[in-house]
């Protein structure tokens, strides 16, 4: 079954097509999208096992020889990210049943989610730089729909900004690919890597590397290119924010990681130092934002920016510990961000406000929600048995090994700010005197929303406690990142 | 006062079929000459737009009772289905097959599964264009 690695892309796509036949039938929409996502989850977990036992999986469309056709490559890094994103989509769809509203469900909400997952998985799995662009557009088109669906004034205003930024960055992406193509004459990522190694990365390739950093940095929201993210992400409803916050920026981070470990590895002193400086500044910007606001959604959104900085700091080290930490941290961060957005969404439903100062005393009436939130918050900050610990520890270790002592301390310091920012939500919303609570009749959905959120937090706890079991898989991923020839040999079959 | 644009209507009745046939020609010629599903689809859609300019939306909908959303979905399904044929033969995804057939009237003809994929593209292009134009032009 040489096409097995395509299933995580094809199943969501086929499901989205089936859903388009009856957009108004809500039961049909819900059951079919759930079935599709469960099938995709099973397929992607099987794929992890296959990649672990059989090595990197490669298929080139239409049986064309290797650098000429479009290649899809499932190495362990891509496969882990694909699995994580499908799991998150599964929980988001489950969470959406009671939170997104019937009007949106009848207007292609579920096809939008599934097409976005198609794009995200395609971007993770592709081995062709222009195909990466196409999958970026697939996921962006679907995300435009999701950000504007419902048509509230705020959404319309913010989606214009969001679309404008992404159109500009996509145009820049095409220009950069054109430049790269004119220099190396190929689009296959493995072939590009080999060609760049042959010519030894002259100045023009380094320039292209920086251009790629700008392009993917706009998608991933690194400092100074994160300006669009906080307000654009605050506008759509909670399940959509959870999807965006967990997946979209991480695709940009993945693309930076891929290009900076596969292509631009011959002038590390310049490119990776630039990445290091920018990631530290990204963390600073995120920390300032997270402490500046009393809006619960915005606090978590600024934490997305901090996490992007932390992961890229790990990538910038270019040693085994740093990359291993980045792999652990990106998976952890996708899961925990989705869980935190879910929980914050429940808090907003219960209190009817997103302003922290108007909340209080929820722990008496909602103990399960309170303690789940506390566990998720500790997980985000990286308290030892929980999921954020191992990734951040390895990243700091990698930083110290590479001799970046001050910036590694900076990462540790940022953990304190992260903890402070999320614990502030706990203190304001759950402690103190009881304030406004929406009456019971208007919030029947509380339990239906709580179950997926608690399960997702349980998964992150398992991810942290069971790090030992996950390590061999992460090791597979890092082996490819640390040595590009593993990737190129697998694709070009030399 | 209602304008009686009989000249426009008569001309469109003739030119619609010419444009439509030309679009089918462009669509079928795509493998060996400039053309293909995308241009063919756009040209068909422009013939339909000409009908929309001459008559109103309701009349055109009554003339051609097509649900364009369905058309788009069928087109996507056709494209995905064609690309997946090879999966069942153990080849890589998107492998196309072709062979020569003796067809009465046409003689020796080459039939290629890329044609089915192109039909999918054609349906999607016509469907999407018409959805855009109808939803902007109509007033609920």
UniProtKB/TrEMBL annotation, chain A:
Q: Which domain of life is it from?
A: Bacteria
How would you describe this protein's topology in the membrane?
Answer: Multi-pass membrane protein
Protein's UniProt keywords contain NAD: no
Primary localization class, coarse: membrane
Task: Show the GO cellular component annotation of the record.
Answer: plasma membrane
Q: Which residues form the NADH:quinone oxidoreductase/Mrp antiporter transmembrane domain?
A: 128-414
GO molecular function (one)? antiporter activity
Instruction: Give GO BP annotations, semicolon-separated.
Output: ATP synthesis coupled electron transport
| Keyword entries, A-Z | Antiport, Cell membrane, Membrane, Transmembrane, Transmembrane helix, Transport
* Cell location: Cell membrane; Membrane
The residue ranges crossing the membrane are 6-22, 34-52, 72-95, 107-126, 132-151, 163-184, 204-228, 240-257, 269-292, 299-318, 338-356, 368-387, 407-427, 448-466
Establish whether keyword Hydrolase is in the entry.
no
Short name of any one Pfam family annotated for the protein? Proton_antipo_M
Q: Which NCBIfam families match?
A: PRK07691.1
Database matches in PANTHER family: NA(+)_H(+) ANTIPORTER SUBUNIT D1, NADH DEHYDROGENASE
Entry similarity comment: Belongs to the CPA3 antiporters (TC 2.A.63) subunit D family.
Q: What is this protein called?
A: Multiple resistance and pH homeostasis protein D
From TrEMBL, chain B:
The record describes its membrane topology as:
Multi-pass membrane protein
Which superkingdom? Bacteria
What InterPro entries would the database entry show? CPA3_antiporter_subunitB, MnhB
| Keywords for the protein's UniProt record, in alphabetical order | Cell membrane, Membrane, Transmembrane, Transmembrane helix
Q: Where is the signal peptide?
A: none
Question: Keyword Signal, does the record have it?
Answer: no
Give a single Pfam family match.
Answer: MnhB
Please state where this protein is localized.
Cell membrane
**Predominant localisation class:** membrane
* TM region positions: 12-32, 38-57, 69-94, 114-133
Q: Does the keyword Transmembrane helix apply?
A: yes
One GO cellular component this record assigns the protein to is: plasma membrane
Residue span, Na+/H+ antiporter MnhB subunit-related protein domain: 7-130
The record's NCBIfam families line, in alphabetical order, gives: PRK12573.1 (NF009223)
Q: Which family does it belong to?
A: Belongs to the CPA3 antiporters (TC 2.A.63) subunit B family.
- Tell me the protein's name: Multiple resistance and pH homeostasis protein B
Protein's organism? Kurthia zopfii
Q: Which gene encodes it?
A: mrpB_2
């Amino acid at each position: 079954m040489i096409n097995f690695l395509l299933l995580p892309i094809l199943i969501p796509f086929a499901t989205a097509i089936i859903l388009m036949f009856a957009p108004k039938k809500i039961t049909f929409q819900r059951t079919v999208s759930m079935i599709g996502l469960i099938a995709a989850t099973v397929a992607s977990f099987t794929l992890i096992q296959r990649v672990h036992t059989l090595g990197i999986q490669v298929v080139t469309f239409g049986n064309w020889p290797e650098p000429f056709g479009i290649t899809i490559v499932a190495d362990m890094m891509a496969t882990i990210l694909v699995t994580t994103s499908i799991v998150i989509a599964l929980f988001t769809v489950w969470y959406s049943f009671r939170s997104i509203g019937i009007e949106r469900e009848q207007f292609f909400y579920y096809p939008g989610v599934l097409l976005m997952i198609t794009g995200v998985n395609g971007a993770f799995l592709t081995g062709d730089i222009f195909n990466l662009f196409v999958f970026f557009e697939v996921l962006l088109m679907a995300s435009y729909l999701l950000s504007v669906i419902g048509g509230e004034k705020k959404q319309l205003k913010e989606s214009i900004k969001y679309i404008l930024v992404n159109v500009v960055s996509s145009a820049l992406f095409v220009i950069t690919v054109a430049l790269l193509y004119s220099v190396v004459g190929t689009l296959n990522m493995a072939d590009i890597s080999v060609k760049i190694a042959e010519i030894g990365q002259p100045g023009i390739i380094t320039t292209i590397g920086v251009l790629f950093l700008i392009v993917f940095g706009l998608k991933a929201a690194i400092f100074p290119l994160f300006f669009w993210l906080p307000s654009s992400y605050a506008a759509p409803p909670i399940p959509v924010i959870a999807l965006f916050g967990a997946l979209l920026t991480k695709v940009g981070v993945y693309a930076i990681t891929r290009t900076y470990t596969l292509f631009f590895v011959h002038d590390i002193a310049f490119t990776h130092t630039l990445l290091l400086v920018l990631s530290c500044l990204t963390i600073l910007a995120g920390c300032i934002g997270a402490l500046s606001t009393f809006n619960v959604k915005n606090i978590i959104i600024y934490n997305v920016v901090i996490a992007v900085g932390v992961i890229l700091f790990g990538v910038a080290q270019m040693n085994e510990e740093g990359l291993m930490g980045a792999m652990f941290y990106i998976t952890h961060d996708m899961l925990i961000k989705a869980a935190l957005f879910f929980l914050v969404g429940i808090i907003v439903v219960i209190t009817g406000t997103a302003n922290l100062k108007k909340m209080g005393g929820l722990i008496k009436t909602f103990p399960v929600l309170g303690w789940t939130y506390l566990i998720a918050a500790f997980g985000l900050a990286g308290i030892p048995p929980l999921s954020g610990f191992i990734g951040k520890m390895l990243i700091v270790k990698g930083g110290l090994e590479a001799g970046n002592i001050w910036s590694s301390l900076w990462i540790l310091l940022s953990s304190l700010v992260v903890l402070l920012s999320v614990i502030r939500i706990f203190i304001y919303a759950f402690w103190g005197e009881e304030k406004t609570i929406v009456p019971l009749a208007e919030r029947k959905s509380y339990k239906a929303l709580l179950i997926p959120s608690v399960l997702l937090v349980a998964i992150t706890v398992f991810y942290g406690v069971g790090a030992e079991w996950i390590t061999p898989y992460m090791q597979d991923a890092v082996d490819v990142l640390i040595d590009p020839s593993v990737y190129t040999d697998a694709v070009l079959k030399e | 006062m209602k304008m009686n644009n009989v000249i426009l209507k008569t001309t469109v009745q003739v030119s619609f079929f010419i444009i439509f046939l030309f679009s089918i020609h462009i669509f079928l010629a795509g493998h060996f000459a400039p053309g293909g599903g995308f241009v063919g689809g756009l040209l068909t859609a422009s013939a339909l737009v000409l009908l929309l300019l001459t008559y109103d939306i309701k009349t055109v909908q009554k003339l051609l009772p097509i649900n364009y959303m369905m058309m788009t979905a069928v087109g996507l399904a056709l494209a995905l289905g064609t690309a997946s044929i090879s999966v069942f033969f153990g080849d890589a995804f998107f492998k196309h097959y072709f062979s020569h057939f003796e067809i009465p009237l046409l003689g020796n003809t080459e039939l290629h599964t890329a044609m089915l994929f192109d039909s999918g593209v054609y349906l999607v292009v016509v469907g999407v264009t018409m959805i855009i134009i109808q939803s902007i032009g109509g007033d609920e």
